[in-house]
């Protein structure tokens, strides 16, 4: 969901009725994004969430009613796996793994500044949204035979302990998310009591109020509709659309 800016050359600056699109062609998935004009020489759009790390071909296309679609320029574009994606993947795989979850607690000892926490929260929550989680994935881990009476650390404890508001919201929407709220860890703390103890008022409201809304974030600017092998995403902030199709 990064912002992509396209600079047009003098020859490409054309009439107002010309509409520009970017088409990303990967090995298994193709994306088409609309653009918005910032000024006669610049366009803006949102980068699609791709399904793997690879270099894809991206074409800038121009469309005008009554005329054939024109490919204005072509370039390569590389999708990479960043630290936020690595972190999300690590957390997803260690759901229910007590050794791994206890290891994450060392982050709490050197609490980062609020601005860094906000940045981390946004990036990791976005990365989680793009992970291909297995159908049976659960916030509490694979072993569903454990009862709520067994003290243990959960992903929800991790998110609340660091004050990750958006990641907490994401986990609440997943299987096992609500169930994690009543689980005590070895110190007897639930995610709800942790939020209260640390003075995370917004987080506590998110966990306890019925009908609490999603926190403001980059992800709330987007709305996605899935249909079979296709998905359409509308980014309200830039008012651009993104069509993704399996090739």
Features:
7 helices, Serine Threonine Protein Phosphatase 5, Tetratricopeptide repeat, 247 residues, alpha+beta
Q: How many domains comprise the coordinates?
A: 2
CATH architecture of the largest domain: Alpha Horseshoe
Termini distance? 21 Å
Structural class comes to: alpha+beta
**What's the rounded overall pLDDT mean?**
87
Order of helices and strands: EEEEEEEHHHHHHHEEE
What is the CATH topology descriptor of the largest domain?
Serine Threonine Protein Phosphatase 5, Tetratricopeptide repeat
Count of alpha and pi helical runs: 7
Give the DSSP E fraction (strand runs of 2 or more residues). Answer: 25-35%
CATH first level of the largest domain: Mainly Alpha
Oligomeric state = single chain
Q: Please tell me what the overall shape is.
A: elongated
Largest sheet: 7 strands, antiparallel
Main-sheet strand order equals 7-6-2-3-10-9-8
Number of strand segments: 10
Overall radius of gyration? 21 Å
**Helical proportion, percent range:** 25-40%
- Contiguous low-pLDDT stretches (5 residues minimum) are none
Description:
The protein is of the alpha+beta class. It has 2 domains: 3-80 and 220-246, no CATH class; 83-208, Serine Threonine Protein Phosphatase 5, Tetratricopeptide repeat, CATH 1.25.40. Helices cover 26% and strands 26% of the residues. It has 7 helices and 10 strands. It has helices at residues 83-93, 98-103, 114-130, 155-161, 165-172, 191-197, 201-208; strands at residues 3-7, 19-25, 29-34, 36-39, 42-46, 55-63, 70-78, 222-227, 230-235, 240-246. The strands form 2 sheets. Strands 7-6-2-3-10-9-8 form a 7-stranded antiparallel β-sheet, with no helix packed on it. It has a 3-stranded antiparallel β-sheet with strand order 1-5-4, with no helix packed on it.
